Amino acid sequence: MDFTASVFEEAAPGRNLFVGVDVAPGSLGALADTRVEYVIGGADDERLMSLIAESEVAVFHNTTTTIARFLATAPSSVLRVWSGWGGDYYGTAISSDAGLLGPATRHLVHSELRPTFWAGRAIHALRFGPQLRAAARAADVFSAPIPGDQAVFRRRFPQFQGVYSQLNYASVEDSISIGERHSLGADLLVGNSAAPTNNHLEVLQLLALQDLDGRRVLVPLSYGNQGYAQSVIREGRRLLGDSFVPITRMMPLSEYNELLWECGVVLMGAQRQAGLGNILRAVWQGAHLVLDRHNPVVEYLRDGGVPVTLLDDIPVSGLPVGPLSEADLAARRAFLNDNWGRARVLDNIRTLVDQK
């Protein structure tokens, strides 16, 4: 939120209000120089509706069922922006993970859930599905970090008749390139969080058939579903032994980026846009990227001239090895600066605001 506040304030000084809905006061970060309010859904509905109506542009980030009703009823005089998080438009109304889990992960997740859970999810979908569809119908703009997610959103919500506009979650200068520069290590990074859509088991099973030759496999599990995290840790140790290194504590971004220097290969089993911060950092560092062929990020990066290895290729070709040439690394960083530099981030915000 600190990053988002800084770029919105630079693009439109003094014109922004940040509202936290159903979150603890102070949880939006130290936004000392910006206007911040906290509201509770149900108790503060009139206040939130008033704040939206008084705005020129209203950005609804992560349109949950609570947020959807405010987007759906926002007046047409306001430019209404559905800023996607991922779980709010991937999958189905019953499960945001639907169609995104590999067979091993699906078996792990579903074996722990009883039929009563799915009955509850179906009832939830029947109750709140119309609200989400109404919100999509009302939205003037859909935003996601990569253009390929527009097609995902339109498939999930054919009611949407608006346009796509990119809002970035980060910039090269503020997060992607921060920290000291080092030579890349030989370790591997797998996934970005304790979310089943990372398909950790499929990736770990794939790595268990490779000769890791003493290389560590670092697996970030510090946030997300901690029950799932424990299952991944159990399976990771069974499959990879001491090579498996779970990361279970939160750490500052600068410290995390130092850890990423150890990883010359970054593998993501997600079939959706996820872990983009890790992916973009890998691009900047010159690490080899291995992604699932269904992930829209593959096309996004390849269109930008960034090579991507597919997980399906690993059984035949093995893990990618060797450092990038200086020319390849320069091309990667040029792609990042063009699409994720702070100047581009600000242009994207101004383009959005100018639609009003």
Largest sheet, spatial ordering of strands: 9-8-7-10-11-12
Provide the structure class.
alpha/beta
CATH architecture of the largest domain: 3-Layer(aba) Sandwich
Q: Radius of gyration, Cα only, in angstroms?
A: 21 Å
CATH names the topology of the largest domain as Rossmann fold
Helix content: 40-55%
Q: Which of globular, elongated, flat, extended, rod-shaped describes the shape?
A: globular
Continuous helix count: 15
Number of strand elements = 12
The number of domains is 2
Major sheet description: 6 strands, parallel
Mean pLDDT, to the nearest integer, reads 91
Order of helices and strands: HEEHEHEHHEHEHEHEHEHEHEHEHHH
CATH class of the largest domain: Alpha Beta
Describe this structure in words.
The chain contains 15 helices and 12 strands. The protein has 356 residues and is of the alpha/beta class. The protein has 2 domains: 2-171 and 343-354, Rossmann fold (3-Layer(aba) Sandwich), CATH 3.40.50; 173-339, Rossmann fold (3-Layer(aba) Sandwich). It has a 6-stranded parallel β-sheet, with helices on both faces. A 4-stranded parallel β-sheet has the order 3-4-5-6, covered by helices on one side. The radius of gyration is 21 Å and the shape is globular. The two termini are 23 Å apart.
